[in-house]
Amino acid sequence: MSKELSRRTFLKVGAAAAAGLAVAPNVLFAGNSESEAGKKPKKPLDRKLKILAVGVGGRGASVLQALETEDIIGLCDVDWKYADHVFKRYPKAKKYNDYRVMFKELLPECDAVMCATADHTHAIICAEALAAGKHVYCEKPLTHTVYESRLLTKLAAKAGVATQMGNQGASNEGVRLACEWIWNGEIGEVTKVDAFTDRPIWPQGLERPAEQMSVPSTLNWDAFIGPAPMRPYHSIYTPWNFRGWWDFGTGALGDMACHILHAPFKALNLGYPIHVQGSSTKLLSESCPSAQHVKYIFPARDNMPKVAMPEVELNWYDGGLLPDRPEGLPAGVDMNYWGGAVIFHGTKDTLICGCYGSRPYLVSGRVPDAPKLLRRVPSISDDFTVNHVQDWVRACKEDPSVRVPSASDFSEAGPFNEMVVMGVLAIRLQGLNQVLDWDGKNMKFTNIPADATVKSMIKDGFSIHDGHPTFENTYTDPVDANQFAAELIKHNYQHGYELPPMPQE
What we know:
This protein has helices spanning 7-18, 59-66, 84-89, 99-106, 122-131, 146-159, 173-183, 221-225, 251-260, 262-267, 384-397, 410-428, 481-489, and strands spanning 50-54, 71-76, 94-96, 112-115, 135-138, 163-165, 190-197, 275-280, 292-298, 312-318, 340-346, 350-354, 361-362, 436-439, 444-445, 453-454, 457-459, 462-465, 468-471, 474-475, 479-480. With 505 residues, the protein is of the alpha/beta class. The chain has 2 domains: 3-170 and 377-412, NAD(P)-binding Rossmann-like Domain (Rossmann fold, 3-Layer(aba) Sandwich), CATH 3.40.50; 172-362, Dihydrodipicolinate Reductase, domain 2. The strands form 5 sheets. Strands 13-12-11-7-10-9-8-14-15 form a 9-stranded mixed beta sheet. A 6-stranded parallel beta sheet has the order 3-2-1-4-5-6, sandwiched between helices. A two-stranded antiparallel ribbon has the order 16-21. Strand 2 (71-76), helix 3 (84-89) and strand 3 form a beta-alpha-beta unit. Helix 2 packs across helix 11 (384-397), helix 5 runs parallel beside helix 6 and helix 9 packs antiparallel against helix 12 (410-428).
């Protein structure tokens, strides 16, 4: 559980709530009056934050609008045509097409960095900012790999800065209600969770395009590639569609699981899975499959005051795949809300919430009255992005000794993102035809045979000749499965890019 609600605090709160007391510990609310050392904290920063933004043409543009209370001094995007509308909106900001140049010139004088680039460059950008002691806001998914998530978590803790992942539902009421209902024992013990999204909405299940294209003059292709292996330019990769390509994105998992699975991760204090298994439609070497299912198994966790936390199975579905409808849900009720849903199967009742943890309800129809244990993020705007971003701004300006972490601080978002991208590992290793055992602490699989190999399809050679189907598919050469898994867990960066070392415990 994050610093927003530590286990020790929860036990105190839960025990008091069980005794019928109304409890609101200071740790749950912004603006504490004294630090833990008893010293009077500094007043919140009374000036605008100086912010650098990397990846501004797409999702980053929305985040920047929520940051217009601050001083945006530098903008970077590899695609100046795509980002032109943003450059025009903030004419005083210096503009760049390579974050390394911007960081060299402006990082020393900035307070914070916003990152909304393609998934594969999140870690390298955020790690440099954190190592320089800057506050960081990073769009989801936090990183491309498990190792990168662990690294950002530790770098943020070492730097003592304010951080936030862009899973905006973390700041909304729905996730809090789902947590508090479960912690109050309203649905009993949860042993199974099903979750799904209606995405992807971008092309997936594709082969690498063979068509040759010239790089547009407005695009810094080398900067887009970043630490990934080089490939020829094609318009299908960027903007937007990067998410469906393994080298640059994490598919529907990285896109939507960061919104949808946050509620079960937080409510059930999930931590590291111990087993994972994936299956999908046709698995290609270049592109994420068009539909997939991932099953996680999490071990029993410490019980909470009003509910036990037994071993739990969590299933993820996307691409049109759906879990079974829970018993008692009326016919005609669409579980999908805002792009997906989560189903908590409890021993007493079933809880369903939509994407972003929104609109939670019990299948029984009961409306629980549970103690409010989690800090509420102030509603500044009807736009939940604004509330999420401004909560981070608030945290940036607070004295670190009394800072209340934002709703998706990296102390929580980092371990959570590890869980999300574990799903990618399960999908890409499905050819091993086994349940994979995971050692979360050491970030490795423990049961892949030493002589195991994996391969994936490069080209789907299906055709029909004289009415008969033929399958002349092309595959990668078999590669060592343990080495392949290790590369997926921790990438070998290309082109001179290098992450800072992992901070020691």
